[in-house]
Amino acid sequence: MLDLIRRGLTQFGGLVAKPWAFALVLTYGILWFLFAPDTFGWQGLATMAVWFMTLLIQRAEHRDKTRRALARAEPRKQRHDAH
Fold it and tell me: What is the pLDDT of residues 16-30, one digit of tens each?
């Protein structure tokens, strides 16, 4: 069960690291502002800023993790190609 949760969270992390996640949050913010402007005060702006920062951090972590994985795979590929 714990392994299933870990895999699910890893997949979710990969999804929110995509550029479309930023568009989704921006669309949500615009719709919130259009349909309920009285509830979109500085608290709404702060909420949107937190969501964008969370996505930015997640994207940077995902990019770094992918870069490290590629860097580890490259020497193995070179050794395999040399034989």
Answer: 777 888 899 999 999
Place of tokens 């800023």: 49
* Token digits of residue 56: 């930015």
Q: What is the largest CA-CA distance in the chain?
A: 68
**For 30, how many CA atoms within 13 A lie in the half-sphere containing its CB?**
6
Query: Residue 55 CA to chain centroid, in angstroms?
Result: 5
Could you give the CA distance from residue 11 to residue 4 in angstroms, rounded to a whole number?
11
The CA distance from 29 to 25, in Å, is 6
Query: How many angstroms separate the CA atoms of 3 and 29, rounded?
Result: 34
User: Against a cut of 0.70, is the pTM above it?
Assistant: no
